[in-house]
Design brief:
Pfam families: GIY-YIG (PF01541). The protein is of the alpha+beta class and about 110 residues long. The chain is about 35% helix and about 20% strand. A hairpin with a 5-residue loop joins strand 1 and strand 2.
Length: about 110
Amino acid sequence: MKTYYVYILKCNDGLTYTGVTNNISRRFKEHQKGLNQSCFTFKRRPLQLVFHQEFNDINQAIYFEKKIKNWSAKKKLALADKNFDMLQILAECRNATHSKYNLENE
């Protein structure tokens, strides 16, 4: 059975990158080495692998990757930190000015 991974990289500038692969260590090394100059992460190295989730079905992996790609960096990092309380708060409202929570102090 083949294993697939959805992963989140934290870039040097604080932005995040989300991807899917069948070989997490190889793919992370490719990002770190900067093999593709047009890649989002090329000018944002060094990178940190902050999250990965295993899947046995490529379709489930792609579905999850597409889902979290649209999340804010704060929400992705909350997932990576296993901060499920903050993840729920961020899921309730993406715009802190319209939320009952003050996220600017985070």
